[in-house]
Amino acid sequence: MEKDGDEDEEGNSAEQRVARSSDAGARPPIYNAEGMHEKLEDICWPSEAAWDESLVITGEDSTQVEDVDDDLARELAFYNQALAAARGAVGKLEAAGTKWLRPPDYYAEMVKSDEHMARVKAQLMHEQGEIEGAQDRRKQREAKKYSKQVQAERIKEKAQTKKASISSISRLRKQRARDGFAGELDMEKELARGPGGKTPMSPGQRIRPVHAGERKVSKKREAKDTKFGFGGRKRLGKQNDASSAADMGGFRQGNFDDGVGRGRGGGRGDGGVRQGGVKKNAGGNRPGKARRQAGNRGR
C-alpha cells in the first residue's frame, strides 16, 4: 500500500503534525515553495548582465581523477582546472579591453601599520641577537676547551723535556764518575744545554746556512765591504776635469786684511792690537795667581 506524500512513516498527515505542534505551544513550520521561488528569481544574477560584472568562469572539461585517494593526482587535477579557468578569464579580459595587470607605479596601502612593523622588526632583531649570543658563547666554550688542551699538551711536553734533561745529566754524571773527573757538575749549565747536550743559541747567534754554489763571506770581508764598497776604481775619484775646474759656482771670496787683526789678547791692557803677528802696545804684565787671589780676599 502506497502512502500519501503528506504522510510520514508513521502515517501521520501534515495537519496532524501541525495540530500536535500547536498543542505543544511551538511555532508551526512554514514551507512556502512558491514564495521561495519568487524570491530566488528576484535575487538571482540577471542573464543580460556583462561578464566582467561577475567574473565567473566555469570549466569546459570535467575533472576526472582515477584514484580520489591519491592526494598528488587530486591536487594536480585541481591545479590544471584552475589554470585553464585563469587563462580563459585573461583571454576574455583582453578581448574586452579591460586592464587586469597592476601598474608598475602602483603602491597599495599596507595592511599593518608602521608601529606594528617596527615591533615586529624589534622582535626579529632581538631573536637574532639571542641566536648570535648563543653562538658566541658556544665558540667561547670551544675555545676554552681547546686552550685547556693546548696548555695540557705544553705542560706534558715541558715535563718530557725536563725528564730527558735529567736523564741526560744522570748519564753525564755516571760518565764523569767512570772517567775520573773531579768536581761538582753544574746543574743549571747542563740543563741549559738541552736534551742533546748542546747549548741553544739565540736568533742573533745562529749562522746563516751556506747554500750550494754560494761563497761564504767572513766578518772581516763584510766590514771592509761596508766601509770601502765593492771593487771598482777608487783613486783619483775627486780629481777635477775641464768642466769642474771651470765651474766657479761654489767659490766664496775670503775677507782679507793687511795683516792687522785681533788676537786672543784683544781687549786687554792697551788694546792688544796685533800687527804682522806681533802684539803691539801691550799693557802691563798680568799679576800672578797668588796676587789675584790676595786681591780678591782684600775686597
From TrEMBL:
Region (Disordered): 1-35, 129-299
Pfam families membership: Ebp2
Chain intervals with Basic and acidic residues compositional bias: 134-160, 177-192, 211-227
Positions with biased composition (Acidic residues): 1-12
One record GO biological process: rRNA processing
Record's compositionally biased regions (Gly residues): 262-275
Protein name per the record: Eukaryotic rRNA processing
Organism: Coccomyxa subellipsoidea (strain C-169)
